[in-house]
Structure formats: C-alpha cells, structure tokens
C-alpha cells in the first residue's frame, strides 16, 4: 500500500528514477520469462547455486528487454491500431494455437524426444515390483499359492524385494513365499503407528497377526525381515528442513526412553521368532533422500554423469542404533544378517545408481532392476 501511494507522486525518488521506470515497463515480460529459467535451474539441480541464480536473473532482464521491444510493444501497437474485429480474430487465433499445443502435449506421446540414457533413467520410476504370483487372501495379505519355502515380513521395503526372494524359493524347492507388509511398520512387538493412519491396518495388529502365525505354524520355513527400520526410530529424512518425528510409538514409553526401548524390542522380537525357525534380518537399505530416477534423468539431460549417492558416513549415522540392535540379535540368538552394503556401497559412498541406471524407483525403494542387482 505504501508503494502504491508513493507511486502516485510523479516526482517520487523511489519510482520516478530511470531504473524503476525501465523495470516497470518490462515487468510483465520479466514476469513471463523468469519462470522457465527457474524451472531450468531446478531441473539442473542448480536452484541453490548463487552464481547460476544470479546469471538467471540477468538473463531474465535481457530476455524481458528483448521481448518487450520485439513482441510486447509491436503487438500492443498493432492491436491498438486494428479494428475490434481484427483484435478478436488475432486473440482467438493465438488462443487456438496455444490450446492445440497444450492438448497435443497432454494426449500424445512423443517417442525418442530424449536421448536413450535419459529415457532409461526416467523409466526406472515405473519399474516397481509387480504382484506376480501373489494372490490376495481373506486376512488381507499377499501370499504365493505353492508350498512355503520362506516368509517375507516387513513394510514397503519388503515389498520392493519380494520378487527376488520368491524366484529364489521357486528355484530352490519349487515352492514360494508367504509375504506380508504394512507401510512403515517394522516387525517389532508392541510397535504402533505414531500418527493416525485410519484407513490402514494398524502396525500393532499387523505384527501381532504375523508373530502369532510364525510362532504357531508347524512348518520351519525361515523368515526374512526387511523394513525401513530407522523410519520408525527417527521419521522421514527426505527433507531436512521439516521437523522429523518417529513413525512408531510404544504404549507407555515416553520420548526419553524411546530409542533404547526400540532397540531392545527389535532384538527381542527377532529372538522370539528364532525359537522355531531361522530368522534373517536385512540391514537398512540406504535412503538416498532424492528421487533417484528423476534427478538422474535431469542430470543426464544437462550432461552431468555423476552417480546419485550419499556418503557412507551419512548412512551409518542414521542407522547406527538399528545395526546395534541387529548385532545383539545375532549374538544372543543366532539371527542371520543380510547386508546389502557390499553391493550398494564402497568405502566412501552408498549409490542410488550404477553406470547411469537407477537402482531405486524413488528415494529409498529398490526397483525391480535394483533388487535383482
């Protein structure tokens, strides 16, 4: 409001100077041009680089100046000098061209418009695990129809690797696996979701069902436990600016003793299940914090060949307590550890892509290509 009042004064220093007048004349062109440059910086992963941002601001001013003189002023002069009929025709024609372009982009697929390596990277976002041989049963979980060679229990990280374990079971014995998953729910006795998940089967009910099933089944098929275990302990880590909160809670346990209780219950649950069968615990799969296919495809578009990765130090900092609990289970009751790090990490980094192809379909779930790798 203050600026509008000041602008009404013809001699106001704030608005009457040449710079303000120059920017004011080109303000609409500047408004139109800055956005595609913002998007380009985002696609290139340069939106936080002050040098590139400064260059985009300067380029916005140059493009705004050119379009003001070459498009905006000539168009305004033409329309002002034309009859109403010509004005309507010109505007309608421009609207038709833009509309047809928008519809064609929405409805038609333009093959091979990007280099093959970019298309390969982007396509990994859709290379998610398929239902395959699994069928839905009355208890709400998926299982294969053949004899049980192994159980696979966990959350969406278990879902992401089920096809590999199922194929392995078929190769070994001609059987299949019994599989159950609940989003963000680690196999820890007494664990509950910390937030109201309403439409989902609760984590507590899910774990009670499978603990009871595994303890009372007459078979001795091994069980493989795979989950994003540190999610329950610390919450999501994709956006460091957002306040994080544990995804899991325990009845009667306060924040001060939560982490210790979480560790103890993880160890206790694994040992409980190992009484009548072998138990395999998967080390946490590295969480890359960014959508691997999307970022890699964008990088390749701009000629950036670097793999998507996090430091090994970051990985161990997030998963230290989970590793300790799993090691306790291995020491106390002979639980076996499955470690993906030799395949996904070296002595410095954990990788979300290899040789320009994503191993994940988002930021933390292995794709079908990734889980077979």
Question: How would you describe the overall organization of this protein?
Answer:
By secondary structure, the protein is an alpha/beta fold. It has 15 helices and 13 strands. It has helices at residues 2-7, 13-16, 18-25, 27-43, 50-81, 84-107, 116-123, 156-173, 203-216, 229-234, 255-273, 292-301, 312-333, 341-344, 368-372; strands spanning 134-136, 142-144, 148-154, 176-181, 191-193, 223-226, 248-250, 279-282, 309-311, 336-338, 349-351, 353-354, 357-358. It has a 5-stranded parallel β-sheet with strand order 4-3-6-8-10, with helices on both faces. A two-stranded antiparallel ribbon has the order 1-2. Strand 1 (134-136) and strand 2 (142-144) form a beta hairpin. Helix 4 (27-43) runs antiparallel to helix 5, helix 7 packs antiparallel against helix 12 and helix 11 crosses helix 13 (312-333). The longest helix has 32 residues, at 50-81. The chain is elongated, with a radius of gyration of 29 Å. 29% of the residues are buried.
């Amino acid at each position: 409001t203050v600026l509008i009042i000041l602008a009404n004064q013809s001699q106001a220093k704030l608005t009457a100077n040449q710079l303000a007048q120059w920017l004011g004349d080109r303000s609409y062109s500047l408004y139109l041009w800055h956005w595609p440059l913002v998007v380009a910086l985002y696609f290139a992963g340069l939106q936080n680089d002050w040098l590139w941002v400064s260059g985009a601001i300067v380029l916005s001013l140059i493009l705004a100046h050119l379009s003001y003189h070459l498009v905006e002023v000539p168009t305004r002069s033409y329309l002002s000098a034309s009859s109403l009929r010509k004005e309507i025709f010109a505007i309608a024609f421009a609207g038709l061209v833009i509309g047809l372009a928008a519809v064609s982009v929405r409805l038609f697929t333009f093959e091979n418009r990007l280099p093959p390596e970019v298309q390969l990277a982007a396509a990994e976002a859709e290379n998610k695990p398929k239902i395959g041989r699994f069928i839905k049963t009355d208890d709400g979980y998926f299982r294969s129809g053949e004899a049980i060679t192994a159980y696979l229990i966990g959350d969406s990280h278990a879902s992401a690797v089920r096809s590999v374990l199922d194929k392995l079971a078929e190769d070994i014995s001609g059987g299949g696996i019994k599989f159950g998953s609940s989003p963000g729910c680690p196999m820890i006795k007494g664990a509950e979701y910390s937030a109201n998940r309403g439409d989902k089967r609760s984590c507590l009910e899910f774990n009670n069902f499978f603990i009871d099933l595994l303890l009372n089944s007459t078979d001795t098929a091994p069980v493989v436990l795979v989950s994003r275990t540190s999610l329950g302990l610390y919450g999501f880590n994709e956006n460091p600016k957002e306040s994080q909160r544990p995804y899991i809670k325990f009845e009667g346990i306060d924040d001060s003793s939560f982490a210790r209780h979480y560790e103890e219950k993880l160890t206790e649950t694994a040992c409980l299940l190992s009484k009548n069968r072998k138990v395999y615990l998967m080390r946490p799969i590295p969480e890359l914090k960014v959508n691997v296919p999307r970022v890699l495809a964008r990088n390749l578009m701009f000629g950036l060949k670097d793999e998507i990765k996090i430091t090994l130090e970051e990985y161990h900092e997030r998963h230290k307590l989970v590793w300790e609990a799993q090691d306790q289970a291995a020491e106390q009751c002979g639980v076996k550890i499955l470690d993906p790090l030799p395949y996904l990490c070296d002595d410095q980094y954990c990788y979300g892509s290899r040789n320009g192809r994503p191993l994940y379909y988002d930021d933390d779930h292995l794709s079908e290509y990734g889980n077979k790798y």
